Amino acid sequence: MVTKSLSFRAVKLKTKIAPSILGADYGDLNHYLQKLEPFSDLFHVDVMDGNFVPNLTIGAVVVNAIKTTIPLDCHLMINHPEEYIEDFAKAGAHIITVHAEATRDLKKTIEKIHDLGCLAGVSIDPKTPVSKIQKVLPLVDLVLIMSVEPGFGGQAFMPEVLPKIVQIRKAYPELDIEVDGGITHETAPLCKSAGANIFVAGSYILKADDPKAAAEKLRKAVS
Ligand code: DX5
Ligand code: ZN
After folding, report:
1. Percent of the chain with pLDDT over 70
2. How far apart are CA 54 and CA 22, in angstroms?
């Protein structure tokens, strides 16, 4: 029973723009997200536990309250995510991405995400080498390469992570590779050339005077 993944798989490897909703107006979230829908392929939902990262955001209760037609790409920056993935699956997550640095048994966790009917992603921090996730790459639907230290929006892009994207793309020509942190119309093309096809953008879109124009500029830069 992996119904959610089917429609997503059908558009695999298309370029996707995923606004990070970290900086959204949580007092009026659904109305806020509605305005982003026309130019979003995914909504990137940053879940932080104040432990794995030094910041605290939202949990499955808020994800459950989101009403949107856009698939939810939940980036779990939390320790022991295996204990919470069922809550996120039930709350409506389409993709659940866990950090290799924070997960006890990566293989088991990825299998559990699939069993819950979601797509499974694995993420690594800027300092973590690809070798840390080598064994699970054949199992995941998506790899999320952090291009800033996870925890906060608005940080500067770290170009030193680009070789990791090249390395993964070379070995897995059909895998979705997402990049997250400091993405702009200038940094996204570097990631695209390296092999990424999903671009998370927080401040660049949400803090722009015209979020739609910013998203369009970003999409054009990677088309
Ligand atoms: C950082 C988060 C990112 C963040 C991106 O830990 O994972 O998704 O929201 O924000 P920008 O695009 O502003 O770097
Ligand atoms: Zn993120």
Report:
1. 95
2. 15
